[in-house]
Automatic annotation (TrEMBL):
Species this protein is from: Streptomyces venezuelae
UniProt KW Nucleus keyword: no
Pfam families: ABC2_membrane_3 (PF12698)
Keyword Transmembrane helix: yes
ABC transmembrane type-2 domain segment(s): 111-347
Phylogenetic placement of the source organism: Bacteria, Bacillati, Actinomycetota, Actinomycetes, Kitasatosporales
Gene Ontology annotations for the cellular component aspect, listed alphabetically: membrane
The protein's name in its UniProt record: ABC transmembrane type-2 domain-containing protein
Length: 351
């Protein structure tokens, strides 16, 4: 006599993971703290810095020199307006009192600018005026008149704000969420279900990846509109963001697996975030620190993440080759992932 087995049919691992992913995504989207610190607060920071730069950064008038016929200088002067002047000169060279010396290169459709380091905002003014000159669509390449790289506040701040959003997603949106689920017994309960433990942990990733993509899309669109990002650079920026996100989420899993108290986790996240942002050059230029301090700090993984993001921002100043940034970030992500997997706890009783 054949025996009939009663009960629900086994659920495939794929279906288990999809169901868990939907549940974890809903939980993330219902977390007001995670949404505020990952989306709202970084966007408010970006808007604040844009307004601040508009109000405080020097906007002219500028006195310029253009190498070439007088008609080019006249056209540029009319496009700039606001009392700015542009005079034609025969050859490139130091021009005392000028905010910049502009050398048009017809062959490469490039405007090369030697800029007074004390008036770097002239670069943005010239870029904004290009559509009203004969140089529409030309690339603007600017360096300091002393050969130094020019500091662009917005090119510096935007990558830092994006990194801050992803760091908040890792700490507030991931570490705190894991600790809260462990404290409430949810993790222990999930570990007793047919779902594999790896599927439970990996189910947190889709929602966080989509939220990170939404933040990147919003900030990237704003950066393109503001002339800080070329559309062609978006794919490489996406790759940089993906590597950085994996690295930061691995940190979130590590802290979420080690800490036991939601209150302690929130306190550590609140303390760790500003320290990391300020000490790794994300929201405070390392160039303002002594070389003996800035040099070692620039090699930290989070500093390398900011450096990699600035490779794709127009006017961004970088310290390392992009391949080196990616290598350090990927190696850090692998190390943190291995450590998180080794130390993760499913309940508060087991060490």
């Amino acid at each position: 006599m054949n025996r009939v087995r009663l009960g629900a049919p086994p659920v495939s691992t794929s279906r288990q993971w999809k169901a868990l992913s939907r549940a974890m995504t809903r939980q993330l989207l219902r977390d007001p703290a995670a949404l505020f610190f990952t989306v709202v607060f970084p966007l408010l920071m970006a808007v604040f810095f844009v307004v601040l730069m508009q109000l405080t950064w020097v906007r002219g008038p500028f006195d310029l020199a253009v190498v070439g016929p007088g008609t080019q200088a006249t056209t540029l002067q009319e496009a700039l307006g606001g009392g700015s002047t542009a005079v034609a000169v025969a050859e490139a060279g130091p021009q005392p009192g000028k905010a910049a010396v502009i050398v048009p290169d017809e062959a490469s459709r490039t405007l090369r600018m030697a800029v007074d380091p004390e008036q770097p905002s002239v670069v943005a003014a010239v870029r904004a005026a290009l559509d009203d000159t004969g140089w529409q669509g030309w690339e603007v390449v600017a360096v300091g008149s002393d050969g130094s790289a020019l500091f662009d506040p917005m090119a510096f701040v935007i990558p830092g704000v994006l990194a801050f959003a992803l760091l908040s997603l890792a700490l507030t949106g991931t570490a705190s969420a894991l600790v809260a689920m462990r404290a409430s017994g949810t993790l222990r309960l999930l570990s007793t279900t047919p779902a594999r433990r790896s599927a439970v942990l990996l189910s947190l990733l889709p929602g966080r990846g989509l939220l990170a993509l939404a933040v990147l899309t919003l900030m990237g669109t704003g950066a393109v509109a503001g002339g800080l990002l070329e559309p062609a650079s978006m794919l490489r920026l996406l790759l940089t963001t993906a590597i950085g996100l994996v690295m930061l989420l691995a940190l979130g899993y590590l802290l979420g697996g080690l800490l036991s108290s939601p209150e302690v986790t929130n306190a550590i996240s609140g303390l760790l975030t500003p320290v990391l942002l300020m000490s790794t050059g994300l929201l405070f230029p390392l160039e303002l620190l002594p070389d003996s301090v800035a040099g070692p700090l620039s090699w930290t993984p989070l500093a390398m993440f900011g450096d990699a993001l600035r490779h794709d921002v127009v006017g961004g100043i970088t310290r390392h080759p992009l391949w080196l940034d990616w290598t350090v970030m990927a190696a850090t992500a692998a190390g943190l992932t291995a450590l998180a997997a080794r130390t993760f706890r499913w309940d508060t009783e087991r060490a």
